Amino acid sequence: MMDLKTKRRTITDNGDGGDDLVLANLIANGDEVGPLVRLAFETGRPQGLLHQLSYVVKKKEAEIEELCKTHYEDFILAVDELRGVLVDAEELKGELQSDNLKLQQVGSTLLVKLEELLESYSVKKNLTEAIKMSKKCMEVLEVCVKCNSHISQGQFYLALKYVNLLEKSYLQDIPVDSLKMVIKKRIPIIKLHIEKKVCNQVNEWMVHIRSSAKTIGQTAIGRTATVRQRDMEMLEQQRMAEEQNVSGVGDLAYTLDVEDIEEDSNFKFDLSPLYRAYHIHDHLGIRARFCEYYYTNRLLQLNSDLELSMAQPFVESYQTYFAQIAGFFIVEDRVLRTTGGLLTVDQVDTMWETAVTKMTSVLEEKFSLMDSATHLLLVKDYVVLFGFTLRQCGREIGTLLDMLDSNHDKYHLLLLEECRKQFVDGLDNDSYEQLVIKKETDYESSVLSFNLQTSDIMPSFPYAAPFSSMVPDACRIVRSFIKGSVDYLSDCTHTNLFDVVRNYLDKFLIDVLNGTLLNTINSGKISVPHAMQIAANIAVLERACDFFLRHAAQLCGIPFQSVERLQATLTSKLVLKTTREAAYIAVQSLVDSKIDEFMSLSERVNWTSEETNQNGNGYMNEAINYLEYVLSTAQQILSMDAMYKVGVGAFEHISNSIVAAFSSDAVKRFNANAVMNIENDLQIIENFAEEKFYSLGLGEIYAEASFKSCLIEARQLINLLLSSQPENFMNPDVREKSYYALDYKKVAAICDKFKDSPDRIFGSLSSKNAKQSARKKSLDVLKKRLKDFN
Question: Where do the Exocyst complex component EXOC6/Sec15 N-terminal domain residues begin and end (predicted)?
Fold first, then answer.
């Protein structure tokens, strides 16, 4: 290395200078010489560059030569060694050729055997592959056979499982292309065939389930009715226990009966075809399409069921109509809960809303055409049971109940008219005679059942009730009205059922019961006994109002103690009392009219009689006989107070008739004999009034105002006209004591007509002339003073 470096320095020293050294360094270092070449040509000095490059070449050749001289001996030695190796290689090659020849001679037989062995191995491999392919094909064909068998047996779900098995596990591995292509083509055809068959089964099932829906709905609604009846019975027991303050009310709790479970276990319908179809379509990957298909077809069935048939009247077909719809939604509820996605809640809600809208429209139309409360109630009750049945399936029935509630006025109008007709018919058929009850059972049904008894002691039979047959008939009608009202309103949305029922009860009692009685009273076609019996009946009906209120509370499930605490009353009770007074007025008017026939004194009395009649006039005897009949009838029918009022009214009317006769324009004048005759009549009627007052047992009750006192005006007038000093009438003390019932104007008009002496020839020669003259003078003084006073 040192020699090399020395030589490099020598070469450098022998060079032309620095430029050659620079170029040599650049080439030695491997740097790029392009810039120098470019610079040389740009400056026009390429010769210098060429000279430098020649210098570099010579320098490199010198280095090579030096290097070869250095390694020449080593090269010679290496060539000698290589020649020795070639000799050894030739010897080895000869040996290998000799060994190979020997080996080929020995292995030729084995080579033939090896070729035969390899051929056997190839055959074996081919046979093994063929057997494997055959087995694979056999497995595929066995699956195909099973699939075909299930299809032929209608077991499409199992068939589809084998189809899916073929498609996913076998199809890609089938070694025979022709078989693979056949199966690949047949799989869609099989799926389509299964889909069609399953759809046909579903269609058949939908037809079957639709035909079974009515039975399903009727069964479910019937069970709802049974449960409601059981609940009502238990509530009634609880109410009775509360009213009787019986301990252990809490024991009346609802229990689940094992029989109910057994009944429910029998309440089944088959959904397996639908389940199979749903799962098959799910495996086919078209579940959404099947869900839409099912929903669309069931909705079409529902719309068809909602169309009301016109072949039968609604009152004959409504149960079938609603049972069909109930069965439909019971099935759909089961489908919703058990199929896991075939239907959605929103779809069922949509179907229910469609049904509610249609049913509401149908009911409103049919209700508007109904003219029977019984029919309307039957339909309403079945619709309520229908609603309660489907409410157990999660359906909202508020709209249906609201629609039923909106028709309660129409129902009650129909019910009022039906009950009015029944009551009018009963009133027309009433004999207006006291009801004679011959048996205890009749007493219980006509009296005790309505709390009409006046005593807790069972009477002896036959028993004459204080009312006619109209009263128990009316009570039965009212009781049926209350039940009908509660039956309609109980399942509606009223928060206070009892108040609503009470209002309708009041309306019925006022408009129907009271109105019909009042029309009968004012008809002018009834007799005195009839009017008395109506008044007595009304008095009993007033008492029955408390029973009606208790009965309404009972049916509403309210203990009567609660009603009493609330002090609930019926306005109709006061209205009936007013009508009873109207009946008394009618009785009084009829009696007065009859008395007027007897007491037409201006026609039946000789006002200028020349003699007196000690036995009285015939009209008074007729009036007394009539009063005897009236008071005897009143004693049998009316209460003591009512009988007293009738007697007081009759005797007051007789008194007024007597006074009115003296005041009548038809009587121009009268004499003392006429006054004496009326005095005799008055005494007769006074004696009768006094005797009757005490014989009727009124003396102890109304001692201060007897029947005789009702004749006081007539008595004081007659006493005044027969007085020897009539002018004392103007004396305040005398008038207050003896003539307080007389009116100045009436007395003045009557006195003007009074002629003390009979109008006949030689009347002034009578033996009574002096006495009559004194009375006449006193009477004239009275007339003058009355005239001055007026």
Answer: 52-221
**Interior angle at CA 576, CA 570 and CA 578, nearest 5:** 120
Domain count, the chain: 3
In the numeric block, the tokens 């080579």 are attached to 111
User: Which amino acid is residue 452, in one-letter code?
Assistant: L
Domain boundary among 406, 428, 456: 406
Radius of gyration of the chain (CA): 66
The per-residue pLDDT for 291 is: 92
What is the pLDDT at residue 12?
42
Question: Can you tell me the distance from the alpha carbon of 281 to that of 273, in angstroms, rounded to the nearest whole number?
Answer: 12
CA-nearest of 515, 508, 358 to 427 is 515
Residue 274 and residue 341 in one domain: yes
Q: Residue 188, preceding bond cis, omega within 30 degrees?
A: no
**DSSP single-letter state for residue 454:** S
Residues 389 and 273 in one domain: yes
Taking the C-alpha atoms of residue 4 and residue 528, their distance in angstroms, rounded to an integer, is: 175
d(CA 771, CA 755): 14
| DSSP β-ladder status, 436-437 and 463-464 | antiparallel
616 in the same domain as 673: yes
CA contacts within 13 A on the Cβ side of 533: 21
Using CA atoms, how far apart are residues 290 and 279, in angstroms rounded to an integer? Answer: 10
In Å, how far are 79, 89, 103, 105, 570 from 92, measured between CA atoms? Answer: 20, 5, 16, 20, 145
In this structure, are residues 657 and 601 in contact, taking their beta carbons and an 8 Å threshold? yes
Render pLDDT for 135-154 as a digit per residue (tens, 0 to 9): 888 888 888 888 888 888 87
Per the domain annotation, does 342 fall within a domain?
yes
Q: Which region, left, alpha or beta, applies to residue 161 given φ > 0 means left and ψ of -120 to 50 means alpha?
A: alpha
Average pLDDT, the chain: 82
Residue 249's pLDDT band (cuts 50, 70, 90): very low
| pTM across the whole model | 0.70
- In the predicted model, is pLDDT for residue 267 greater than 90? no
- Residue 251 is assigned to a structural domain of this protein: no
Token duo for residue 480: 């049926």
Closest to 711 (Cα-Cα) out of 785, 652, 765: 652
**3-state SS of the chain: helix, strand, coil percent to 5?**
80, 0, 20
pLDDT for 86: 86
Examine residue 1 and state whether it is found in any structural domain, yes or no.
no
Q: Please tell me the total number of residues recorded for the chain in this structure.
A: 790
- Name the residue range of residue 66's domain: 49-169
Q: What are phi and psi of 740, to 5 degrees?
A: -70, -20
